[in-house]
Amino acid sequence: MRHLAKLLVAAAAFCVLAASAEEVTVTKELQAAMQDIAVHSKVVTVDGAGATPENFHQDFDPATLQIVMLAKPSDGAAQVSSDGEVIFLQKDTSEKEQQSLFATAFYLKAKAREATSQPAGAHSSP
Question: What UniProt keywords apply to this chain's record, in alphabetical order (predicted)?
Fold first, then answer.
């Protein structure tokens, strides 16, 4: 699992940069945080019967990454929740798309960690 996580993190910076229409900077610190999250997150598979990205209730545990297997295509597209805590997959989601979704989840979780570790007022411009 650690080897897979390291491969995902290595691909993360590339995937995030390549997939984004806006300029994204992945610093060494952010990349290290992504790797730490990839290695230490507990991946939990959740039965997606009746679940959609709109009605799914996540566990709000930052130590977990929930994978929701959607029951049917009409339940929604493969995607990552806005906070990176949940990945929604369809049974036919390609390996390449899964890697991209994991990379996006690790990136979002690392950005959230980075935001909470900055002192108050650090985000505002003079």
Answer: Signal
User: Rounded CA gap, 7 and 23, in Å?
Assistant: 23
pLDDT tens digit sequence for 7-66: 454 454 444 444 444 456 788 999 999 999 999 999 999 988 889 999 999 998 989 999
Q: With 0-12 CB in 10 A as exposed, 13-18 as middle and 19+ as buried, what is 99?
A: middle
CA 52/CA 120 separation, integer angstroms: 35
Q: Residue 2, by phi and psi: left (phi above 0), alpha (psi -120 to 50) or beta?
A: alpha
Whether 80 and 56 have beta carbons less than 8 Å apart is answered as: no
- Around Cβ 33, how many Cβ atoms within 10 Å? 22
Choice among 1-10, 28-37, 65-74, 89-98 with the minimum mean pLDDT: 1-10
